[in-house]
Amino acid sequence: MMTRRQGLLALEDWLTRVEADDQPELHSLATGIRRDQDAVTAGWPCPTTRRMEGNVNKIKMIKRRCTAVPASRSSASA
Fold first, then answer.
1. Would you say residue 61 has pLDDT above 80?
2. pLDDT tens digits for 14-39?
3. Contact at 8 Å (CB) between 44 and 5?
4. What does the pLDDT read at residue 75?
5. Residue 3: which of 39, 58, 47, 37 has the closest Cα?
6. Cα(7)–Cα(20) distance, rounded to whole angstroms?
7. SS3 of the chain
8. According to the model, what pLDDT value does residue 17 have?
9. How far is CA 36 from CA 25, 56, 61, 74, in A?
């Protein structure tokens, strides 16, 4: 539901079904989502979010490779 961005009605239906179900762990989750529902829906994934996150992760990986100290160099100083 969240990754396919089906909308607020699907979330509302899911929360209602969870609250009617007999699973206390999910009741706690639903209560937390309802408490912060504005924040949950504001953070709903946008279509461009995944593409952007992928690019950010790629940049971080390249940066780590460039700044990494070779194992042979780091053990020689010890």
1. yes
2. 899 999 998 888 999 999 999 998 88
3. yes
4. 55
5. 47
6. 21
7. CCCCCCCHHHHHHHHHHHHHCCCHHHHHHHHHHHHCHHHHHHCCCCHHHHHHHHHHHHHHHHHHHHHCCCHHHHHHCC
8. 92
9. 17, 27, 33, 47
User: Which distant-in-sequence residues (6+ apart) come within 8 Å of 11 by Cβ?
Assistant: 1, 33, 40, 41
Residue whose token pair is 């396919």: 4
Contact between 33 and 40 (Cβ < 8 Å): yes
Q: What does pTM read for this prediction?
A: 0.48
Task: Give the pLDDT score at 48.
Answer: 58
